[in-house]
Structures are given as C-alpha cells and as structure tokens.
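Side project, low priority. Logging it here so it doesn't get lost.
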Amino acid sequence: MINYDNFIYQIKEGLIYTHNILKYKINLNIQLDSIGLKYDIEILNKLSFIIIIYNIEYFEKHNLYDSFFNIIINLYGYFPSYFIIKRKNGKENRFIFDELKFKENLINVTDSIIIRFEAKYDDGERKNDLIVPEKLYHLSPSTYYDKIMKNGIEPKSHNRITKYAPRIYLFYFIEDKDNLITRLENNDTLKYGKKRNYNLYEIDTTKMNIIVHSDPNFERGCYTYDNIHPEYIKLLK
C-alpha cells in the first residue's frame, strides 16, 4: 500500500501529474468510503477507470457533488468524460459529461450511475513517456486554415464521443488520415447535420520541446496540451 500521509503531502504541493490508478486505488477507496458512497471501481487501464454509484439519493441529500469530483479531479488528476444512467427496467442513457447535465439527470436515476474518468496526464510528471517522432499529423476543419497559419494550433475541447480537457490530437501515421476523416465526418453529420472539409497538417517536432501523452482512445495517436507554433506546421492536403 502506498503511504497515505506522503500521498496527501504530495497533492497539497499542487497537482502537476496524474496518479497511476493501478497504484493508488486503495487511497481512492479510503476517500470515497469516508464520504459514505456505495460504489464499485472498474479499472480499465492506468489511464482510465469507471466508478458505479449505487446510493444516488445519499449523493444528492448530502450534496456530495463537489466533494466527489474534487477528490478525483484535483487530488488524482482525472476528469469525467461521460456518464451512463441505468434504470431498473434495464434501459441506459449515455451522455458526454457536462456538470449541469449531470446534476439535472441525477433525479432520473432509478438504479445506478456510471461515470468514466480519464487521465489528464499520462501516469507521472508532466514529461514525455513516449518517443516523439520527427513528424506528427493533425486534422482540422479547412475553415480554420488562415487562423492556423497565423496563430498555430491551440488546445481545444471540441467534445465528441467523450469530454476531455483542452488538448491537440495528433497521429503518427499518415495512412490513418482517411479512416480518421471518416470518423470526424460521421461525428459532424450527427452534430451538425452535414459533413465538413478537413485539412491535413504535418507537424515538424525536431525543433520543438513538445510533450505528448498516450491517447487512451486511439493507440496510433497521441495528444498534447502545448501550443504548436505555425513555423512547425505544414499543410499537406
């Protein structure tokens, strides 16, 4: 078991990394038990886990929203990406995580609620645990071309399948572009009712001090919280 007092000391110094949930699950159990939750934790990998809450009435009565999310977000370095409402008749409703939407839907829960959490930083200090190739690739709607060429690429939070902190998604292999464009277009159709055109950019990392993290949803990709200056960006298509 990790020394709990030492852990609390570290987090009071300021959260600069995500704690590996595989190592700190016992500590998380201690804190969730202390606020009276009935729950299960399902660890997916060191970057993500699911919490199932069963006593929603207690959760609401004791106003545990802030306590619960502060523990996981501010102490452990994870953020909620989506939640699922389960009803006794077996029906489920899934939502991209939004604070207001979550609170509104608590009254609709008749069985349990499932919340998925994903790491802000990839298990460790804010440093690369990945080998950064000389070239990375990025897709962006063509309407942003002028802005990108002038200001570069900035972290954004355009939520699609899950909610995530502002970041820039990149991928390693140019041959993945067609598959990724298809996925983006499908999401656009669902969200906007029409497809958008996308530009493909090549990022030259050889002169950059870029920090990248594993993408838990796409093993052939990564993401960064760093701005990318236009001098390192080249339009390919």
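Brief comment: Residues 7-15, 159-163 have pLDDT under 50 and may be disordered.
Revisit when time allows.
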